[in-house]
């Protein structure tokens, strides 16, 4: 039986940071409902920004993460990028569908 390892405060905060940006990007891609508006909204420009931030975190923390943290970050980035590409493809297949990033102000 494996012994459970206690997670440090720093590890917990890092995991929370990654999950926070994951949730934001999924919301921005219209995959999750916005809890403030109770609507699903798509803003691919903002989603890309959230993904880019996690990519920056990955590059800045290279060599400083525990194995579990690195695997979490890799998996979240992979999932987000695949979902982003899917949404981009859907947007391009439906030219009349506007995202909030495409709407004039």
Tell me what the structure shows.
The chain is mainly α and 105 residues long. It has one domain. 61% of the residues lie in helices and 0% in strands. The chain has three helices and no strands. The chain has helices at residues 9-28, 44-60, 67-93. α1 runs antiparallel to α2, α1 (9-28) runs parallel beside α3 and α2 packs antiparallel against α3. The chain is elongated and about 50 Å long. It starts with 8 loop residues before the first helix and ends in a 12-residue tail after the last helix. 16% of the residues are buried. The model is unreliable at 99-105 (pLDDT under 50).
What is the structure about, briefly put?
The protein is mainly α and 105 residues long.
Q: State the shape.
A: elongated
Topology, number of strands? 0
User: Strand-and-helix sequence, N→C?
Assistant: HHH
The end-to-end span amounts to 59 Å
Features:
single chain, 105 residues, mainly alpha, 3 helices, disordered C terminus
């Amino acid at each position: 039986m494996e012994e459970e390892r206690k997670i440090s405060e720093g590890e917990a905060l890092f995991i929370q940071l990654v999950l926070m940006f994951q949730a934001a990007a999924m919301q921005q891609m219209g995959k999750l409902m916005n809890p403030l508006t109770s609507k699903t909204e798509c803003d691919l420009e903002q989603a890309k920004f959230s993904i880019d931030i996690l990519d920056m975190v990955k590059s800045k923390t290279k060599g400083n993460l525990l194995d579990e943290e690195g695997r979490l970050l890799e998996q979240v980035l992979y999932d987000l990028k695949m979902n982003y590409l899917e949404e981009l493809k859907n947007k391009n297949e439906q030219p009349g569908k506007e995202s909030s990033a495409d709407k004039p102000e």
